[in-house]
Amino acid sequence: MMRSLRVCAQFLYRDLYVFSSDILFYVSNYALIYPLCYMLTFAYLMPETVMANTEAKELFVLTMLSGNVVFLMINMSWKLVSPLLYDMESTKVIQFQMMHLHPYAVLFEHVFFFTLFSFCFLAPFFAIGKIALGDLLDISHINWPALLLMTLLGCLFAVTYCLCAVMIMKSSKQTGSFWVRFTIPLTIMGGFWVSWHTADTFWPLLGRILLANPFIYATEGIRRAVTGSDTYFSIPLCAVMLTIFSLAFFTGACWFMRKKLDPVL
Fold it and tell me: What is the spatial distance between Cα 227 and Cα 115, in angstroms, rounded to a whole number?
């Protein structure tokens, strides 16, 4: 047991060392450029262009930014996880790691590191927006502990989702199809533009179908945390569902990894 923990710690250190060389890339893209662009567009330009009511502007801003946070989660998670797909096709560093640690433990280590790594860059999203926009962004209703919890669980879900997809894909040529056929539709229909309550009100059947979309719990949870409105799903519900989906995707990743490494299974 202690040997496995030491090996896992060494792999964590290896990941930290490897990704620290790109730290400026992640800071500039995911902590500065993307958030500031989204803030400028959805918190300033669009509300000022199409809305006159101040209260409606504030709700629109927080609703849209919550969807953008989830999009950043999946975007950054794919950036972190996708090298495993190419690794399986060529050098197979992951197979070397599995010689020293149980395969499932290797995947767990990747999930643990990638989740915390992405969380560190996405957690300050609204704080950076407040610094950049000042009074244009009202964050007085934000429940910060709930927002941090939803961000952490959202990152966990995004990482396990991407990891499961990487293990399912037979080659890197399927990456484009994965995004077009699955990730983009699930993101758009997962509350990116409108809340679940709105979809359920205008088309109840669609609302019921969307309950099977894991992305909806990430966007609803973040919106509940930043607005405090009870029109969104409760924080406990979103936390439970994101945890369940994360466990399901991690289990799927473990199963498909076994099939990929040993096709006779």
Answer: 25
- Residues 150, 235 contacting (CB under 8 angstroms): yes
Mean pLDDT check: name the lowest of 136-140, 214-218, 253-257. Answer: 136-140
**Residue 243 pLDDT:** 97
pTM score of the predicted model: 0.85
168, two tokens = 């399912």
Between 18 and 243, residue with greater pLDDT: 243
Give the integer Cα–Cα distance in Å for 240 and 153: 9
Question: Is a pLDDT exceeding 80 seen at residue 16?
Answer: no
